[in-house]
Structures are given as structure tokens and as C-alpha cells.
Design goal:
It contains 22 helices and 15 strands. The chain has 495 residues and is α/β, with parallel strands linked by helices. The chain has a 6-stranded mixed sheet, with helices on both faces. Strands 8-5-6-7-15 form a 5-stranded parallel sheet, with helices on both faces.
């Protein structure tokens, strides 16, 4: 069955998966969504015997229907290879009454690797399919992880350049070091004097700037996106939820057809939306538990039905979730609103103009599968300490937010359904916050002394991604304001 993609804001015709991956964002500012959601062709018993790569093919072929079997298997084989430090790609660890789906075994030790390892292959394959002659400029904003993962994926890929904007004082020291030491003749990193939302808004404006698109095209370039707004980012994320269910079944932890809950630390809403799509494919899911940090715009939305970004922006120890505009929520809003582009456009216009929108009561009824809550900074630290002391298992700050919210959900609901928690980053990425939570005496150590101490107390080898940046030279030192972003891009491209 062919799946086509259309914009959540409705203008324009339906396009193929490869065209949607190349465009990234629709010309009308909307996000691409599949015109229907397919169903898995295989049983979970069959899937339980498959490798991650084989599972990826079975899931992704349902969404990317204009890719041939050979093309898709080529992309998957080159993405999920020895750059991951475990054969399973996404192992599951049972700890503290939950199943932690470890999504941080790739080259940048964060869950973004799961999708950004394959996106360059999907994109260059899509470019060939569509006879694209321009060089593709990947333009992306990052709250910490997307940037490094995207650059690692696209570094020195022929026919591409990648420009990453990040909030200069809004990421962890390790995250910043990973980005500014990135090698590759086609990689560019720019710190902006603002927060992630400023960076993301600036990137979206450039995507929607017709005059700039003409200038780029005349110089032989065209924009595409590596953010989770790109459907080529979202589809690969669906895979690991299907894989997790199949592996729990194989391990005898669940029975066929038994429902699980899924808890996700949530910022831009892409990762939890992928879980929702996995349910539509056939994964038996009871509740989607949406965990926020002190930037609790999503918690307030689930509580009230009003999405309101008009609030103080908080810098927290879980910076990848320091977001007030959760872009991927638009895809869910579109779906629960009956796939009505006019209704959706009206709400997104309201968000752009007033910073908020409200959904109808009927739409709220369609969100019953979702539960939202948040963890304060203090609660996040307490969760890291408690789980370490009780089990020896060390969580990063984002996963700790999810673990804390999961405990709140259980206490409020009495629901004992087995639960998968998306463990979205290695604790080595946020060593100071993690080690301070375990014991404040560690605060006297340097960042890399903390890395070695964490390895010692957690009984885990220091990831290669951290070893590589210990002595790596800084290669990128550009800084600009949000207003200067378009000029900075033109300067980089020599326009």
C-alpha cells in the first residue's frame, strides 16, 4: 500500500516519502504526516526473532513506500553498524520496577543517534530518486543532542552541508564540547545569544523565507532539516518501540497481546509521538506517560487543554527538554482534530501570534491515552540518587525526569501495567548533574575527572564518544544573535 505525505496545514498536494524527507518542512509551514497509518505485517512472535536491523526494515518499509527494498536495506545496514557499542542497538535493562530502553549506545550517546544515523542515507537516497542537482544544506536548531548527532551523521557526506544553531549558554559542557570539536569539512556550528526556542524559531523562519530560498537556489543550494520535524527523523524512532515490545515478549517478561505503558522524557514531542505511531501500527500500549521538567508547558497542556508558551524559560539540568514550543505536538493536534488542516492552521496561527491556543473538549477526549506530569530539579536529583543507591543503576537527568514522573503516575493511578521508560541519554553526557545528585562531594572534580569517577562507581566503561573529546581541539567558535542567523548562513555558504 502506497503511503503519501501531506501537510498538517493543508495546502499543496500529497507527496512521496522521499520528497517529504528532502523538503523537511512543508512550504505552508506545516509538518508532513502520512495520509494513513499502516499496520505491521508480521506477528510479534515473528518480530521477536529478528535483529534490530531486520525489525527496522519491517517497520520503515510501511512508511517509506517509494524506497525499494535494496535502497532501504542499504540505508539501515549503514546506519546501524559498529558505530553502536552494543549488538542489540537498543538494549533493555530492568531496574527499579521498570524496563529502561537504552537509546544511547550510538556515536553521540543520546537517543537522537537512533534516527540521525540513518537520516543522511535516507536523504542522499531521496535526492538521487528525485534528481536533485542542488547541494543540500541541513539547517537545524538543537537543545543539545540533535546538533552533534546530525553532524556526526552528515560529516563529509557528499552533496551536503550541515549548519547547527545552539543556545550558547543552554547546553551541558560535554554537549558543547561534542559540537564545537566536530570534524568534517561540511559541518558548521553556531552558538546563539538566546534560548533553544529562539534558535528553532529562527530556523523555521529561514525555511519559510521564499526570497532566501531563491537566493540559495541561484547559488546551487536548497535547505532541508535534520530536526524531528523531518518525517525521516520520526519514522526511525517508531522502530525501537516495536523492537522493545518484541524483545520483552521473547524474554518472557510479557505475554502476547499484553499491554505495556511507555514513559518518555519529552521536549519537542517527537519521541513520544513515535511511540503513539507504534501503537497505531499494532503495539499494545495502554498509556503514554509524558514527562516534563520545570518547563512544563506539556504538563499544563494535558491538564487544561490550553497550550501556552507565555511563561519564564527555565534552564534545567535536563537541557534537551528545555523547550516551550513542542513542534511535533502539531502532528498529534492535527490527528485528534480529525485531520482538519483548517482547524490546525488556525491553532498554529494563534500560537505564533499570541503564544497560545486551546483545543476543543472533543479533542481533549481523544487525548485520554496520554498522562502528563513533571519533575522539579530537586525531584530529578533525588530520583538519580535513589535509583543508584537502591539498584546501582545510574540514570542521566532526562531519564530521571521520566522515572520520577512514572512513580507519580503509579501513585496517582494505581496502575501496575509493565512500563518501558525511554532512556534517552547516557549519564556520561551530564556527569556533573548526575554525580552531584549522587553525592555533592563530587562537585570539586573537573568534568573529565567526573567522567572517570562515574565509570568507577557505575561499573560502566567510559563511552568512546567521551574519550574522543577529552583532548580534541575546538574547531567551531561562531556566535550570533537570533536576528543574525540568516546572514550567518549566507556567510557560511559564501552567498
Amino acid at each position: 500500500m502506497e503511503i503519501l505525505y501531506k501537510s498538517t496545514r493543508g495546502t499543496g498536494k500529497s507527496i512521496t516519502a522521499s520528497q517529504a524527507i528532502l523538503q523537511g518542512l512543508s512550504e505552508d509551514g506545516g509538518l508532513f504526516v502520512p495520509d494513513s497509518l499502516p499496520k505491521l505485517a508480521l506477528s510479534f512472535e515473528e518480530l521477536s526473532e529478528m535483529s534490530y536491523q531486520e525489525t527496522a526494515y519491517e517497520v520503515m518499509k510501511l512508511f517509506l513506500t517509494d524506497f525499494t527494498e535494496e535502497e532501504l536495506k542499504y540505508c539501515i545496514a549503514h546506519a546501524y553498524d559498529e558505530k553502536f557499542d552494543t549488538e542489540e542497538i537498543a538494549p533493555i535493562k530492568k531496574a527499579a520496577g521498570a524496563y529502561y530502553l537504552e537509546l544511547f549506545h550510538g556515536s553521540t550517546i543520546a537517543f537522537k543517534d537512533m534516527a540521525l544515523s540513518i537520516l543522511p542515507y535516507l536523504m542522499t537516497t531521496a535526492a538521487k530518486k528525485n534528481q536533485v542537482k542542488n547541494e543540500i544544506v541541513i539547517l537545524t536548531a538543537t537543545s543539545g543532542d540533535t546538533g552533534k548527532a546530525a553532524m556526526a551523521g552528515f560529516a563529509d557526506v557528499p552533496g551536503t552541508k550541515i549548519i547547527v544553531f545552539y543556545p550558547k549558554n543552554g547546553v551541558s559542557p560535554i554537549q558543547e564540547k561534542q559540537m564545537v570539536t566536530q570534524k568534517g569539512g561540511n559541518t558548521y556550528v553556531v552558538g546563539i545569544t538566546g534560548n533553544f526556542d529562539d534558535a528553532q524559531t529562527g530556523v523555521k523562519k529561514m525555511f519559510n523565507d521564499r526570497e532566501m530560498a531563491k537566493e540559495l537556489s541561484a547559488a546551487g543550494y536548497q535547505f532541508s532539516s535534520a530536526n524531528s520535524i523531518n518525517i525521516g527523523r520520526l519514522v526511525p524512532q517508531v522502530v525501537y518501540y516495536v523492537y522493545a515490545y518484541a524483545k520483552l515478549l521473547k524474554a518472557g517478561e510479557i505475554q502476547t497481546g499484553e499491554k505495556i505503558n511507555i514513559t518518555v522524557p519529552t521536549g519537542n514531542f517527537g519521541n513520544i509521538l513515535a511511540a503513539y505511531y507504534a501503537k497505531e501500527l499494532g503495539v499494545p500500549v495502554g498509556k503514554f506517560i509524558c514527562a516534563s521538567n520545570e518547563n512544563k508547558v506539556l504538563y499544563d497542556f494535558f491538564e487544561t487543554g490550553c497550550y501556552d508558551r507565555n511563561r519564564e524559560f527555565m534552564l534545567t539540568s535536563s537541557p534537551s527538554m528545555d523547550i516551550l514550543i513542542s513542534s511535533n505536538l502539531e502532528r498529534l493536534i492535527y490527528r485528534i482534530g480529525g485531520n482538519d488542516p483548517d482547524k490546525n492552521r488556525s491553532m498554529m496561527d494563534s500560537l505564533a501570534k499570541t503564544g497560545k491556543y486551546e483545543i476543543t473538549e472533543e479533542m481533549r477526549q481523544n487525548l485520554k491515552e496520554f498522562y502528563g506530569n513533571y519533575a522539579s530539579e530537586e525531584e530529578t536529583a533525588e530520583t538519580i540518587k535513589k535509583i543508584y543507591e537502591d539498584t546501582g543503576y545510574v540514570l542521566d537527568t532526562h531519564t530521571a525526569v521520566a522515572a520520577c514522573v512514572y512513580e507519580k503516575y503509579k501513585a496517582q493511578s494505581g496502575d501496575s501495567t509493565k512500563t518501558v521508560i525511554a532512556s534517552t541519554a547516557s549519564p556520561f553526557k551530564f556527569t556533573r548533574s548526575v554525580m552531584n545528585a549522587i553525592d555533592e562531594k563530587y562537585d570539586a572534580l573537573t568534568d573529565f575527572e567526573l567522567v572517570d569517577k562515574l565509570s568507577q562507581i557505575g561499573g560502566v566503561k567510559v563511552p568512546d564518544a567521551i574519550e574522543e573529546i577529552r583532548t580534541a581541539p575546538v574547531l567551531h567558535d561562531r556566535i550570533c544573535t537570533a536576528e543574525e542567523m540568516p546572514e550567518t548562513v549566507k556567510k557560511i555558504l559564501g552567498i
